Every structure is written in C-alpha cells, then in structure tokens.
C-alpha cells in the first residue's frame, strides 16, 4: 500500500518537571505563540498540530501536555497509555530537572508501548548565561538511552519545529501503510476516544 496522500495520526505525550516549559513548547509548536507568564497546567491539556513531511505525507500529532507538579504524577499513566511518542522536557538551567526527566524516560521504557519514540528536549536555551546542564552531558545520556535529543527555546522558537519534525520522521509510516489496522495502526483519535470511553481523560484542563 502506498503512503501517497496519507495522513497519519499519533498520540504524543509531554512529560517533565513543573516549570520546565512543556506548555510553552506545545503552544509555540501549535500556535507559534509564547506567553512570558503562564499558569501551571492542571491535570493535562489537549492540543493538535499537523506536519507535512512531503507533498504526499502528513503527520498529525494529538498532544497531551501533562502537569509537572508531583501531586499530579499519579495521573500520568492515563495520558501516556497508548502513546506512540513522547517528549520529555528538562530546563537547561536546573540540574534537578534532568534527573526528573531521566526518571520519566525510565518509566516510559518500563510501562509505555515498547515501540514508543521518545525525544529528550533541553528547553530554555534563551537562558544560556544561566546554563547548568552541558549539552554534551544530555546528548551522551540521550544516545545511551536511545532517545532523540534537541535543545530548544519556546521563547525564541529555537528547534521547536525541528523537534516535532524529527519525531514525525521517526514514526513507522511504511509499517502503518502496510498494516494500517495492526498494532501500531490504531491511530491517535481512536486511542483518545477509547480513553474517554474508559473514563481516563477525567481531570483534563483543555
């Protein structure tokens, strides 16, 4: 089956410590907008955006932006369950945020779909003067863990589109074309609807 004229939908989840800029990254990607002051996400927020990989192939991400506060941690499996891909975000100015990101990666690799595509994003490169985590340190960890890796800035839009485009290119489009209703063929819209039917989207602050 050809991929010509195909649109593929994937469920994507964002994880990371509070205040690392997850919501700002998604808002920059979806709306090309940045708010200097944002209220913390409660539960999770839902957004969607498409990327055209070429004239014939479009990827649609249905994105769950999860809250980073510790009190919401128990809700995270509701949002990464069935996810095809994930962005785990840390703040390059906060050493502890990379430790938290590593724990999220470990959890995804243990509990999420074994084929999930995970990207590590070191956010806030606009605060270079306050950098606490060297690029090399994070890159070496990402390589060891088999992750995509980008340093980004939601404020300046640095590498934001590139991050999501790299994820889209990593998704198994040919496999889905050959087996559209197989294990990875259940698209993101189907998964989100199933989650709602099971009551797992309660608490979403969309």
UniProtKB/TrEMBL annotation:
Transmembrane segments: none annotated. One of its GO terms (cellular component) is endosome. One of its GO terms (molecular function) is GTPase activity. Keywords: Cell membrane, GTP-binding, Lipoprotein, Membrane, Nucleotide-binding, Prenylation, Protein transport, Transport. Residues 178-206 are annotated as: Disordered. It is found in: Cell membrane. GO terms for biological process: protein transport; vesicle-mediated transport. It is a lipid-anchor. The keyword Nucleotide-binding applies. Coiled coil: none annotated. Pfam families: Ras (PF00071). SMART domains: RAB (SM00175), RAN (SM00176), RAS (SM00173), RHO (SM00174). Its main location: membrane. PROSITE patterns: RAB, RAS, RHO. Signal peptide: none annotated. This is Ras family-domain-containing protein. It comes from Absidia repens.
